[in-house]
Amino acid sequence: MKILNSPRRRRRLIKIAVVVAIFPLAYLGIHYSTGGSTESANGPEVPNYVQPKHSPFTEAERRAVHPVLAQFIRYAVAREDPAKAWDVAGPDLRSGLTRKKWDTGAIPVVNYPAAHKGLGSWSYVKYSYANTVGLEVFVFPKPGSGYSAMTADAEVVKDSDGRWQVNYWMPERFHGPAAASAKQVKAAKKAARANTKKSTHKTAAAAPSSAGQPARTTGLWLALPIGILSLIILAPLALLLVGWLRNRRAAARDALGT
């Protein structure tokens, strides 16, 4: 066909064919698509979910939570005696574990060598609901542990008997330089002792030459003020002597002239 012999006409035919093919596909997509239900714009509803109401974390509750949190950190987090942390661990942490398994230390709590400094204290209260409180806890490491200070997210809950338990614990971030490990402390002490010995040996070796040095130095410093005092005294005497000699010579010349 002559119409296909022209490159310009072939390009126009290709463009028309593309438009003709896309138009019905676009129409079908728009026609059969749905915009969704406006009633479920926020996603699926969670059945039986009730938004908890804020409840103040009273001073009495703070005093009750403090020793519970301290016991949990000491015995569960630091692993000093996991068996003693069973009673202060909440149902979520104990879920799927027997008491015997828990006592072995195989517990869902990240191990951290927490020092006894400030145990049971928290940085601030993140949220407070009825029988549930979220806290940010600041923990110090044991000296020589090689760890730095840490903050952790903790949640404490009150059971049906009114006892507080730690139901959630997760390290959040570390702060500052790490405490020197026991190996590093030992190496530093060894190096310090070695440096002390070297300094002692150097001082002992230099003792003979330094023993005579102060005497020479002291003599030089004494000679200087003595020389200055001598000049102050002898200079006027020398001037007086020179003047007396000149006067005497002058007098002698006068006598001869007469």
Description:
The chain is an alpha+beta fold and 258 residues long. It has a domain at 59-182: Nuclear Transport Factor 2, Chain: A (Roll), CATH 3.10.450. 50% of the residues lie in helices and 14% in strands. The chain has five helices and four strands; from the N terminus they run H-H-H-H-E-E-E-E-H. It has helices at residues 7-32, 59-77, 91-94, 99-103, 182-257, and strands at residues 124-129, 132-139, 149-158, 164-175. It has a four-stranded antiparallel β-sheet. Strand 3 and strand 4 form a beta hairpin. The longest helix is centred in the last third of the chain and has 76 residues, at 182-257. The termini are far apart.
Summary keywords:
alpha+beta; Nuclear Transport Factor 2, Chain: A; 4 strands; 50% helix; elongated
Sequence of strands across the biggest β-sheet: 1-2-3-4
Tally of strands = 4
Our measurement of the CA-to-CA distance between the termini, rounded to an integer number of angstroms, reads: 162 Å
Oligomer: single chain
State the secondary-structure class.
alpha+beta
Envelope shape: elongated
Share of helix among residues? 40-55%
Assign the CATH topology of the domain at 59-182. Nuclear Transport Factor 2, Chain: A
Order of helices and strands: HHHHEEEEH
Give the number of helices. 5
The major β-sheet equals:
4 strands, antiparallel
CATH class of the domain at 59-182: Alpha Beta
> Low-confidence segments, ≥5 residues, pLDDT <50?
209-216
Q: What's the architecture of the domain at 59-182 in CATH terms?
A: Roll
User: Whole-number average pLDDT?
Assistant: 78
Radius of gyration: 48 Å
The proportion of strand residues reads: 5-15%
